[in-house]
Structures are given as structure tokens and as C-alpha cells.
Specification:
Layout (H helix, E strand, L loop, with lengths): L20 E7 L7 E2 L5 H4 L4 H5 L2 E4 L2 E4 L4 E5 L8 E5 L6 E2 L9 E4 L15 E4 L15 E4 L22 E4 L15 E4 L3 E3 L9 E4 L3 E3 L9 E4 L3 E3 L5 E4 L10 E6 L9 E6 L7
Parallel strand pairs: 1-6, 2-7, 6-8, 8-9, 9-10, 10-11, 11-12, 12-14, 13-15, 14-16, 15-17, 16-20
Antiparallel strand pairs: 1-5, 2-3, 3-4, 18-19, 19-20
């Protein structure tokens, strides 16, 4: 299979100046009803004592509870978000909205993470050592979200009823992702080491989606701008794409076909889609 190699650009999106203080969260018990925990951010923890962090409220169903009801809180936060590292030692798949809107600092999750991890994040760095649920990096503006496992649906998307998704930053998925990755994407980069499923890049207006593996169907549907690069097999190709050239501007190893579209929606479409020639000979 032809593989595309994207030149990695150096970024300081996840870096912070000076020494970092660390707050460790250790789950106390199995969580039944999912938690809404948008307070788990360096911005919320900065400048607070261990006791004050433990008293921050999370939602479970219709009620709020102290964070310390669910996690043992250890360590100390920095004086600013940029000086604060949050480490979750254990699985957090039933904890939603971790890192929502964060502007700086770091979050390390030594397990999986629930829905909306990194939603609207503006800066800093989140690393998830397991899988993530749907809506990761939704409407992201900056920073780095690094997922070492697989991702669910709607990574980097616009939320339901909205048209504009991720505008900046970088999402790296070492595994595969499911449906509608990068829906409504306006900017930034999403890099996927594995495969994607249906409607990757739907309504994309800008930014870069790079998929080292293959795609299922609906790739680039309603695409008006931006770039998609696919290194593997596309199972069901969108018929409205038009073939223009067989090489592109990115540094790629191997031969890629370039398509622009989606012309079913607009005759002035400017999006670019790069597809491996070896694994898609019928295109």
C-alpha cells in the first residue's frame, strides 16, 4: 500500500514555560451515571489548594457533587494554568468534558476518556493513553489533543445544529476513528494513523485531514475547502468528486490522485482530496 508521509511541523501549542506543578486524580469507585466534569482543566485548578480542587462541583444526572466524591485528589496546582499538569490515573471513559475550553497547561489521562474531551480547547495539551468517546476536540480552537488509542464519532466536528467545527490546533489519533471526523472543519489539523468510517470531512471548509489508512464512504461530502489526504483504500467513493491532477503540494511518498469538490453542492468548490493511487486503481 502506498503510504503518505506528512512533514510534521514543530509547534509550541502544548508547551508551557517554567516548572509545572502536578495534581493527580485517582478514581475512588466505578462510575455508573456519567459525570459532566468540565471543571477538570488547568484553568479551573490553577491557584487552588488540594481541598479547594476537591470541592469543585461536577454534575451527575440532575445533581452536583464535589469532585472529591469520585476522585482522590493529590498534589498541588500551579499558580497559573500554564504551570499546572493534571494527571488522571485510571480509566475516565464515563467522565465527560475533560479539558473543555482549556487555554494552557497539560492533562495526562492514563486510560480512556469520555465524550467531549478537549471540546473548545484553546491551548495546552491533552494526552489520552487509551480510547476516547465521541465529540473529542469538538469546535477546538488551539492546542494539541493526542489520542493514543481509537476515537469515536464526530472528532473535531461542529456540534449538532451548528455549521463550523474545529478552527485551529491539532488532533493526533494513533488508532482509528469512526464517523464524521472533521465535520464542518474550518482550520487546524487532524492526523489519523488508522482508518476512518463514513463522511470524513463532511462540510469541510478549511484545515487538513490526513488519514494514513482507509475510509468507508462519503469522504469529503459537501466539502467546500481545506485538504483531505488518504493513504489507504476508499470503499465507496463520492461520485461528485472530479479528478484534476495526480500529485499534490504536500510531501508524499508514492503516487496520489488529487480530486476537488464536492461539485454536487457548489460549482465553485475549492476543497482538495488526495487518494492513494495504488490502493484505489479504479478511481
Amino acid at each position: 500500500m502506498t503510504e503518505g508521509v506528512l512533514v510534521q511541523k514543530k509547534t509550541n501549542a502544548g508547551e508551557s514555560s517554567g516548572e509545572m506543578e502536578e495534581v493527580t486524580l485517582i478514581p475512588k469507585k466505578a462510575i455508573d451515571i456519567k459525570l459532566e466534569a468540565d471543571i477538570i482543566t488547568p484553568d479551573s485548578f490553577a491557584g487552588k489548594t488540594t481541598e479547594e480542587i476537591g470541592m469543585l462541583s461536577v454534575w451527575q444526572g440532575p445533581k452536583t457533587y464535589p469532585l472529591s466524591d469520585f476522585f482522590e485528589v493529590m498534589g498541588s496546582a500551579g499558580s497559573s494554568a500554564a504551570e499546572t499538569l493534571i494527571r488522571i490515573k485510571g480509566d475516565a471513559m464515563r467522565v465527560k468534558r475533560i479539558g473543555e475550553g482549556m487555554s494552557a497547561g497539560k492533562i495526562e489521562i492514563e486510560g480512556s476518556a469520555g465524550m467531549h474531551v478537549g471540546t473548545g480547547m484553546k491551548g495546552g495539551e491533552i494526552t489520552v493513553h487509551g480510547d476516547v468517546d465521541s465529540w473529542a476536540g469538538m469546535e477546538m480552537l488551539g492546542g494539541l489533543l493526542h489520542i493514543k488509542g481509537n476515537a469515536g464519532d464526530h472528532v473535531g466536528c461542529a456540534y449538532r445544529g451548528k455549521w463550523h467545527g474545529m478552527k485551529g490546533g491539532r488532533i493526533v489519533i494513533e488508532g482509528s476513528a469512526r464517523h464524521q471526523l472533521g465535520g464542518g472543519m474550518d482550520g487546524g489539523e487532524i492526523l489519523v494513523g488508522g482508518n476512518v468510517e463514513s463522511f470524513c470531512g463532511i462540510r469541510q471548509n478549511g484545515g487538513l485531514i490526513f488519514v494514513k489508512g482507509g475510509a468507508l464512504r462519503g469522504l469529503g461530502a459537501e466539502m467546500a475547502g481545506g485538504t483531505i489526504v488518504v493513504g489507504g483504500k476508499i470503499q465507496r467513493f463520492a461520485p461528485a468528486m472530479e479528478n484534476k491532477i495526480t500529485s499534490g503540494e504536500l510531501e508524499l511518498i508514492g503516487e496520489f490522485k488529487k480530486f476537488t469538490g464536492d461539485y454536487a453542492i457548489s460549482k465553485r468548490a475549492k476543497g482538495a482530496l488526495y487518494v492513494s493511487a495504488d490502493t484505489n486503481p479504479e478511481l
